[in-house]
Each structure stands twice: as structure tokens, then as C-alpha cells.
Design brief:
Layout lengths: L1 H14 L8 E5 L6 E2 L7 E2 L30 E3 L8 E5 L8 E7 L5 E5 L5 E3 L4 E12 L3 E7 L5 E8 L7 E8 L4 E11 L2 E12 L12 H9 L4 E4 L29 E2 L15 E2 L5 H10 L3 E6 L19 H15 L5 H8 L10 E4 L6 H17 L4 E5 L7 H13 L3 E8 L1 H6 L13 E9 L12 H16 L4 E6 L3 E3 L10 E3 L4 E3 L1 H10 L5 E3 L1 E3 L2 E2 L6 E8 L4 E8 L5 E7 L8 E8 L18 E6 L4 E6 L3 E8 L1
Parallel strand pairs: 1-32, 3-15, 15-18, 18-19, 19-20, 20-21, 21-22, 22-23, 24-25
Antiparallel strand pairs: 1-28, 2-27, 4-7, 5-6, 6-14, 7-13, 8-13, 9-12, 9-14, 10-11, 10-13, 16-17, 25-26, 27-30, 28-29, 30-31, 31-36, 32-35, 33-34, 33-36
């Protein structure tokens, strides 16, 4: 790896003195488009890793709200002493998906206190309203609830009192609190007062102000960064959590829909995956379930791309497989998911979708079968899925895994088998150092144009790992920008692409680098975020060839380029990467019968220091700079900054 990096550095150094004398000439064949670009070319990969869902985009502030963690009291602290039997965790198997509850027996009217620590604390904002809620079953009436928001110094910064009904059976109650201060590491106190006995469950705290102000919804600032990308698709739920460490802990979509209080919590497979980043309090409550995923995709204008388990657990863990004669339930899950997304309200699953608030279909068009699975055991199971899905739903494109790596014996076997099978879309993943991305810009130039499409489902340029928030560097992002020129130039083959993973919590990450970093109050995009955002917001409809000396621009003298035409905006869009330490002057000769307006838009991401990154303290240290420019004549002459990625938009 060090050798590749050294070679790349030498190439950059040797090229850096070439540009001071004369412009580099490029030909842009506007009148000879090379193919169409998928409308959902650039999208989002979501996985509940790095506290991406619970503790992240799902705005719940209470950890272990239903006492279902392996350790029922995890996240909770008892503030007062009480006689044995006063506070009990009761496991009632009759309660679907959520058997445990807290039984409070207080015949003497003691003041009983509980405190929840949240997910690395609770992000509380001054002046914001928070909704506290719970489920309760009053066995002996007489208890009442008082709740408090606390800051880091245990000062009360918001409070409310809640009366409980004397009616029998499980019911809900809620109260609102207004925060008088901002706290990044707040806590919640729950005081239980009065004489009586009651069971409590789903003890919850949400900000009232969520994405689209949906009750108990998503964190608004995190969703906004996704919406700002204008993504073409949203892949979910991953990622390795699709597989699970074993089949018992695989992601099962049917357990994530319906009433939230009935959704069955499981351990998150990233809980113990990395010894250097153990996260024993990481579980999946599925408050953010498949219905919410479909809804989010619709909100941000993205095609839903669900990935389902194919009857195989993670092959890096147990490698469990379901026997072929027991694969039917897995295939039925796929059929039922299509019914949930697209079926009429007269069907079982379409009816549930309507009951949850969305009678209209979600218009699902693609479905992934398996994630990073490999070997003949995967091909055998995939063929069983394909046979049934194509018979019953030929309108659904099937996405299949090409394994964990973009080359090697495993990849070659899968690529050959998937092409022979006539699969619709092959999902390729690349986690590699910057030198690999720079050298792979021509990867798809010679791919079979009549074969399956390619989904660049997980890409990320890695420097030193494990690294954390500060290592989502400009070096990584610029190498990705260079590689993405190759994806765009070959958009007739590459139909989708997404960076992975999406989110990382600065206090709770397991894997890095990540596209977006958050803490309990703040969120920022990395340089890689800004690179993909520029591609996504400027994707175009047609591939326009751009060449230097009759060849695609794939790294000659450390320069990379692609071009597209946007039919809707009537714009020619040129993307250019200068991976040199010196500025480069370029002359783009646009071969077109049509003329363009002299005014154009130039957007630049640049920094002379490849190791710079954004941070909570400097969230916009690397950000696009947009300016209006004028080009005269039939050519575009422009100077590109050292280590820069530039987008030029010409209106024709």
C-alpha cells in the first residue's frame, strides 16, 4: 500500500512543473453524447452503524426506553433507596415484541427517582419544547409523575408534572417541557410520587421540532443534510446488519413495522464487532423501521432501495446459512415487502401501510438480495430468489452482491456467475486507499455495455484506520472525486453510486471515515460529503465525451475529467480534478453547433493541504465556493487551483 502511495506522490511531483507555460487542451464532444445517465445515479447508503439510527437520526433521547436491553437497567440509574420489591422488571410474554416493563409498587408513598443518561448524554436546546411520554398500567391508582431535564452540572433546566388516569389497562400519557438552557450532555430525571402500584414502559423523550414536525420522528438537522444532496436513491438498512452475526440477529423487516411499542428490539451487530470500539449499549429499537425508511426516501425525493437477507448470516462471523429447503420464508419476506411498498390497501401488507398513514404505494422498483455475500452458497440462494421474484414481480430489478472486494478470485467468480445468471444490477464495494481510487478512474471503460448494470454500493477512500472524525480528509475526498469522473463517464454501465457509511457520532463511532459526523447538537458534512453532493446536484441526463489527445481523461498528468448535459436545465456541466500541487490552465474546446451564454457558474472545492478536514469546530473549513464567470469565444479557458475539484456549468 505504501508503495502505491509513493508512486502516486512521485507522479504528482513530476507533473507539478508542467503547467506554467501553456494550457492543456481538451475536446468536449457535445454533439456526440455517449449514453444516458440514470436519474437516480447518486444516492445515499444508510446503515445503523456509528449510532446512525438510535442515538442519531432517530430523535429519541432516552436510551433503553422499554428495558429490553440485555441488561434491563442499562442507561438507567436509581436515585433513591427503596425497599426490596419496590422496583421490579417484569417479563410478560403476552406482550407482543416488548415483554419487559417496570413495575412500581409504592404503598408507603415514597419519592422514587430514576435517571436516564441518554445516548452519550442528551442534546437539549434552549427554548425548545420536548415531549415526555410513557405507557402505564395502573394496578392500584394513586401514582403521579414529575420529570426534569438536567444539564451537565445536574442543574434542572426544564420540568413538568403528569397526572395518571385511574382507568384499567395499558394507556399512554404525555407532558411537555421547555428547556431554559442548552446542554450537549443533558440527562432526564423521572420522579414517581404518591401511593399506588403501576407498570411503566416506553419511557420516552423527543424534541417537538423534528423533520416535518412528525411526532416522535427524525432529527431535523441530520435529515436536512441528506435532502440538500438531492439524492437519487436511499439504500437501507445496510450494510452488514442485513446479515447479522447469526441468522437470529439478522434484520427482519416485518419486526420493524406496525405499532412502535410492539417492535422487537435486537442487539446491534456493531455492539461487539470491533474490540477497539466496544459498544455494549448499542441496540436496535426499530423506532426507525421500514415504514419510516420508505417515508424518508419519499420525503427527500429518493428511490427506495431495500436490501434483504438471502438466508445467510455474515460470513466474517458465523457464516450460518438457512438450508435450501427452508429458504421459503426468506423469499416470502421479499414478496411481502413488495406488497407492503406497492400493494393495494386490499392486501394484508398494503392495508398495514395504509393503517400506518400511507395509503398510496411507495413505488418500489429495486430490491437487493443479500449484502456482501459470496461463494456458491450465495449463488444457489440468489437463484432461488430470482426465480420466484421474476415470475411474480418482473417489474422489480434485482440487485446482487459481488462480495466484499472489487477484485480478486472471489470477485471474479461472483462477477462471472451474476453475468451468466442475467442479474439486473451488480453491487460492487470499494474501501481502498487514495492511490487505488486515483488509478481506477478507467475501471469501467471496458465493461460490457450489454451486461448487467453496476451499483457502486459502498465506496470510501481510506487513509489511516482506525482514525475517527478528524481523518475524513481532503486527500480522501479528492481521490474519490477523481474516481467518480470514471463512474460518470461510464454512467451507461454504472447506474448508481453511494458513499458508505453515512453517519458517525463523534462519541459513539465504530467505523470511519464517514460521510457526515454528528454530536448530540451539531452535524457537519466531510469533504467527501461535499464531493458527492456536487455530483448529485449536477448529475445531468446525458454523457458527453471529454478527451485529451483522443483519450478519456483518466489521470494523465494527474488530471481527471467528465462531462454531462442536463436536458432540463439546458446546461453542459464539466467536472475537473487537478491532483497537482500547482495550478493548471486548461482549454476546453466545446464541439457543438449550439452556442452558450457567456455567463457560467464555477463551483470549486480546493485546499493545498491534503490532510485538512472539517470538524465540529470548523464544519465548513472545506466547502464549495461558487462564482459567476464569463467565457468568450468557442472555448472555455480556465485555471484550476492546486488539489481542486471544480464544476463548471454552461447554459446553452
Amino acid at each position: 500500500m505504501k508503495g502505491f502511495l509513493s508512486i502516486a506522490a512521485l507522479l504528482v511531483a513530476s507533473a507539478s512543473g508542467l503547467w506554467a507555460q501553456q494550457p492543456v487542451d481538451f475536446q468536449v464532444a457535445f454533439d456526440k453524447p455517449a449514453g444516458k445517465i440514470s436519474p437516480h445515479m447518486w444516492g445515499i447508503f444508510f446503515e445503523d452503524i456509528n449510532m446512525g439510527a438510535d442515538g442519531g437520526i432517530y430523535a429519541e433521547l432516552v436510551k433503553n426506553r422499554s428495558f429490553e436491553f440485555d441488561e434491563p437497567w442499562m442507561g438507567w440509574k436509581r436515585l433513591t433507596k427503596a425497599p426490596e420489591g419496590t422496583l421490579l422488571i417484569v417479563n410478560d410474554s403476552k406482550r407482543k415484541g416488548n415483554a419487559r416493563s417496570l413495575r412500581v409498587h409504592n404503598p408507603d408513598g415514597l419519592k422514587l427517582g430514576l435517571q436516564n443518561e441518554g445516548f452519550r448524554g442528551m442534546g437539549i436546546r434552549k427554548g425548545e419544547t420536548y415531549e415526555f411520554s410513557l405507557l402505564y398500567n395502573p394496578l392500584e391508582a394513586g401514582l403521579r409523575i414529575h420529570v426534569e431535564l438536567l444539564n451537565e452540572e445536574d442543574k434542572v433546566i426544564g420540568s413538568a408534572t403528569m397526572a395518571l388516569s385511574e382507568a384499567e389497562g395499558w394507556q399512554s400519557a404525555k407532558a411537555e417541557l421547555v428547556a431554559s438552557e442548552t446542554s450537549a450532555k443533558g440527562k432526564l430525571n423521572v420522579w414517581i410520587e404518591g401511593k399506588g402500584t403501576s407498570s411503566f414502559d416506553m419511557i420516552s423523550l423527543f424534541p417537538k421540532e423534528t423533520w416535518k414536525n412528525r411526532p416522535k420522528g427524525l432529527r431535523k438537522d441530520m435529515v436536512q443534510l441528506l435532502a440538500d444532496m438531492k439524492p437519487g436513491f436511499l439504500r437501507f438498512p445496510g450494510g452488514c446488519i442485513v446479515e447479522g452475526r447469526d441468522l437470529a440477529t439478522r434484520f427482519q423487516w416485518k419486526k420493524t413495522v406496525g405499532p412502535i411499542e410492539q417492535r422487537e428490539l435486537i442487539i446491534n451487530r456493531w455492539n461487539t464487532e470491533f474490540k477497539h470500539r466496544l459498544t455494549p449499549d448499542y441496540f436496535q429499537t426499530f423506532g426507525l423501521g421500514f415504514y419510516e425508511y420508505f417515508q424518508l426516501a419519499e420525503d427527500i425525493g429518493a428511490e427506495p432501495v431495500p436490501i434483504l437477507n438471502c438466508g445467510m448470516a455474515c460470513q466474517f462471523n458465523t457464516g450460518e446459512v438457512a438450508p435450501m429447503d427452508e429458504l421459503e420464508p426468506y423469499i416470502q419476506d421479499a414478496l411481502d415487502l413488495i406488497a407492503f411498498a406497492n400493494g393495494s390497501t386490499a392486501t394484508t401488507w398494503g392495508k398495514l401501510r395504509a393503517e400506518m398513514g400511507h395509503p398510496e404505494p411507495f413505488h418500489l422498483k429495486m430490491l437487493g438480495v443479500g449484502n456482501e455475500n459470496w461463494g456458491p452458497q450465495y449463488i444457489e440462494r440468489l437463484e432461488a430468489f430470482k426465480k420466484v421474484l421474476k415470475e411474480k414481480h418482473p417489474e422489480i430489478d434485482i440487485i446482487a452482491s459481488s462480495g466484499t472486494d472489487p477484485e480478486g478470485e472471489r470477485f471474479a467468480y461472483l462477477d462471472g456467475e451474476l453475468r451468466s445468471m442475467g442479474i439486473d444490477i451488480i453491487d460492487e464495494h470499494y474501501y481502498r486507499p487514495p492511490a487505488w481510487f486515483l488509478s481506477s478512474a478507467a475501471r469501467y471503460d471496458d465493461y460490457d455495455r450489454s451486461g448487467p448494470k453496476v451499483f457502486a454500493g459502498e465506496y470510501a477512500s481510506h487513509t489511516t484506520r482506525p482514525n475517527g472524525p478528524g481523518r475524513s480528509t481532503w486527500e480522501a475526498a479528492l481521490s474519490e472525486a477523481a474516481f467518480l469522473t470514471g463512474l460518470e463517464r461510464n454512467a451507461d454501465v454504472v447506474t448508481m453510486a453511494s458513499y458508505a457509511p453515512l453517519f458517525g457520532h463523534v462519541d459513539g463511532w465504530q467505523w470511519s471515515p464517514d460521510l457526515i459526523w454528528v454530536d448530540n447538537l451539531n452535524v457537519y458534512g466531510t469533504p467527501s460529503y461535499h464531493v458527492q453532493k456536487l455530483y448529485s446536484r449536477n448529475k445531468g441526463t446525458d454523457i458527453i465525451p471529454i478527451q485529451r489527445n483522443g483519450r478519456p481523461v483518466t489521470g494523465q498528468d494527474s488530471l481527471y475529467a467528465s462531462a454531462v448535459y442536463d436536458e432540463g436545465q439546458k446546461q453542459l456541466i464539466i467536472k475537473f480534478v487537478n491532483y497537482n500541487s500547482e495550478p493548471v490552465q486548461a482549454n476546453f474546446n466545446v464541439l457543438a453547433k449550439r452556442k452558450w451564454k457567456g455567463e457560467a457558474t464555477k463551483i470549486t472545492l480546493a485546499n493545498a493541504d491534503l490532510q485538512v478536514s472539517n470538524s465540529l469546530e470548523e464544519p465548513l473549513k472545506i466547502q464549495p465556493v461558487e462564482q459567476q464567470v464569463n467565457y468568450k469565444g468557442k472555448s472555455v479557458v480556465e485555471t484550476f487551483a492546486p488539489y481542486s475539484f471544480t464544476v463548471i456549468k454552461l447554459t446553452l
